Amino acid sequence: MSTFATPPSVSCPSTPAGSAHAARPLRESVEEDRYEPRFRVVAGGQDSGIECQLSVPLNAAGDFRVPCQLLDLNSSGCAIRYRHPRPLGTSSTSTVLEMKNLANSDSVQMLVRVCWVRQAGIDQYESGLYFRRSLPETLIPQGIRAGQLSRRVAKRESVDVAVTVRQSQPRIHATGRVVSISHTGVQIVSPSGLTIGEKLMLQLDNGKAAVGVTVWSSRQETQLDGAAFASGIAFIQAGMGRQFHDDVLGLA
């Protein structure tokens, strides 16, 4: 049985509100999306053989398909890793992710938007995908019971540390606050929204800095000290992320 989700007419998906097949509105609150549980894919083990491929429109002759590895998943999106000389799907509105053997389903096809890409090695990339409609709600609980999915393990610390944000396209130079951090990413609040998928630099008052890519950015319902937006940023390099994590905790 194959499940296929067609896209609603929105520019950026949000956390689902309602049934698994309802069109998702534009994101209004960071709280829904940021704290929706994410589950990492368990490598190996019984019934853990999830197969994935990314299909990107090439021309009138058909789609270009690349096998990929599913890294983590929730009802709103996922992260994948694949091998290719260049990143895929960043300019397409019709990119499709197909997952086989997830929770014993034959095939689940999701129309997706590529929200960020980072290079993970030579001819190897990781991408964050937003589902244009929610994943069928039964798949994640069934995947957990089958031993395919598990809670993410990156520990997140709540902090309140000043940070300077520098983004080149479009140009942003603003001050903000780091409000939570892990070894893999950081959440900040700032006066300006950030551009999803764009690289930026985060610099602390002591001069220590890290480079990341914006995964999400949303207007806050309650503004504190002029911080109208909250944003999530994934570190591009693991070693840099661990060092920046320790630097932030040293100032907290």
From TrEMBL:
What positions does the domain PilZ occupy? 34-135, 151-223
Q: Mind telling me which InterPro entries this protein's record contains? A: PilZ_domain (IPR009875)
- Residue ranges, annotated region (Disordered): 1-29
Q: Name one GO molecular function term.
A: cyclic-di-GMP binding
* Taxonomic superkingdom: Bacteria
Extent of Polar residues compositional bias: 1-17
Give a Pfam family name.
Answer: PilZ
Q: What is this protein called?
A: PilZ domain protein
Organism for this UniProt entry? Stieleria maiorica
